[in-house]
Design brief:
This protein is of the alpha/beta class and 334 residues long. It folds into two domains: 155 residues, GTP1/OBG domain (Spo0b-associated Gtp-binding Protein, Chain: A), CATH 2.70.210.12; 169 residues, Rossmann fold (3-Layer(aba) Sandwich), CATH 3.40.50.300. It is built from four helices and 14 strands. It has a six-stranded mixed β-sheet with strand order 10-11-9-12-13-14, sandwiched between helices. The protein is rod-shaped. The chain binds guanosine-5'-triphosphate and magnesium ion. Magnesium ion (MG) binds next to α1.
């Protein structure tokens, strides 16, 4: 199941206590302090796992603790450092610290690249052993410290898929059919609305070495930005796409107005999306007489004021022009 939201608790390991100890030697009442320091507690660290695309496991697994440091020992032995604990996240996870009322305090990490690592909770420092406190005035200190507790944090996880190209369209426009022909993704396809209930991503291979990532999200309807239909919950997944593909079913009336409605929903959700590079894809051209296609394109292109907005007619079912679409998207993505 695709889950893009979770809350977890992380805690660094406790530092090991410092040791109080004196070397035992015959005839020496205080044979020199030799209590070692405790080891530091382990950290909780976020890393990326490119194979995960959902936060579902964090709906079950909600507590993560770094390992505790071992206490120091006599003979100046240091305690072992606690083990770091690594939590794996899908690319595109944004991690916020929240307070007890679930209010966001700050952004801790935005995991947008595979090498990214972020410390979510630091382990506590190990306590110092009494050997450390020897001074000219105190040759036999008994002072030794307790290990510190690790940091505790409550975190909110929000996943925003990291796709290059996002498919935007009304329900039934053929978005899932398109992604299933262009990639190995297999979302459900059916002739009714809201077939796709969760985002799906696929890798589109352009040639042997080049590819880009495409995201299919559930259909958008008028009012989506106010929560209508499947609402805004999935719009966040196209926020970071480099290209938006507006998929229109060519058999529907008022194509330009439909495009405008979609764009209005997106920009009402996030005004930056109005400037995002886009393409209009007229799908299902197999359903109109071939000779009429130019006229369809003319009607919509006359109303478009942006000279850079390209219109590409395709048929996701027959595969017509899908290569052209793939290259056009790749030109923008790269
Ligand atoms: N004739 C024809 N039918 C198509 C084409 N593309 C999609 N369809 C059909 O249109 C219907 C809807 O396709 P989907 O891919 O499920 O549409 P969607 O946009 O993903 O729909 P939602 O998930 O509900 O938003 C299915 O019956 C498809 O077979 C096309 O190019 N030509
Ligand atoms: Mg679909």
């Amino acid at each position: 199941m695709f889950i893009d939201y979770a809350k977890i608790r992380v805690q660094g390991g406790k530092g090991g206590d410092g040791c109080r100890s004196f070397r035992r030697e015959k005839h020496v009442p205080h044979g020199g302090p030799d209590g070692g320091c405790g080891g530091d507690g382990g950290d909780v660290i976020a890393i990326v796992d490119p194979d995960i695309t959902t936060l579902i496991q964090y709906n079950y697994n909600k507590h993560f603790e770094g390992g505790d440091g071992n206490p120091g020992q006599s003979s100046n032995k240091y305690g072992k450092t606690g083990e770091d604990v690594f939590i794996k996240f899908p690319l595109g996870t944004v991690i916020y610290e929240i307070d007890e009322n679930d209010k966001r305090i700050r952004k801790i990490a935005d995991i947008s690249d595979e090498s990214e690592k972020a410390i979510l909770a630091k382990g506590g420092n190990g306590g110092r052993g009494n050997a450390v406190f020897v001074s000219t005035t105190n040759q036999a200190p008994t002072r030794h410290e307790q290990g510190e507790s690790g940091e505790v944090r409550h975190l909110e996880l929000v996943l925003k898929l990291m796709a290059d190209a996002g498919l935007v369209g009304f329900p039934n426009a053929g978005k899932s059919t398109l992604i299933s022909h262009l990639s190995a993704a297999h979302p459900k396809i059916a002739s009714y609305q809201f077939t796709t209930l969760q985002p799906c991503i696929g890798v589109v291979q352009v040639d042997e070495i080049h590819s880009f990532v495409m995201a299919d999200i559930p259909g958008i309807i008028e009012g989506a930005h106010n929560g209508k239909g499947l609402g805004i919950q999935f719009l966040k997944h196209i926020e970071r796409n480099k290209v938006l593909l507006y998929i229109l079913d060519i058999t529907q009336p008022e194509l330009f107005e439909r495009y405008q409605t979609l764009k209005h929903e997106l920009t009402s959700y996030n005004k930056n999306l109005s400037k995002r590079k886009s393409l209009i894809v007229l799908n299902k051209i197999d359903l109109i007489p071939a000779g009429d296609l130019d006229e369809y394109i003319k009607v919509i292109s006359e109303k478009i004021t942006d000279p850079n907005l390209e219109i590409i007619p395709v048929s996701a079912v027959t595969g017509k022009n899908l290569d052209k679409l793939k290259y056009a998207v790749y030109e923008i993505v790269k």
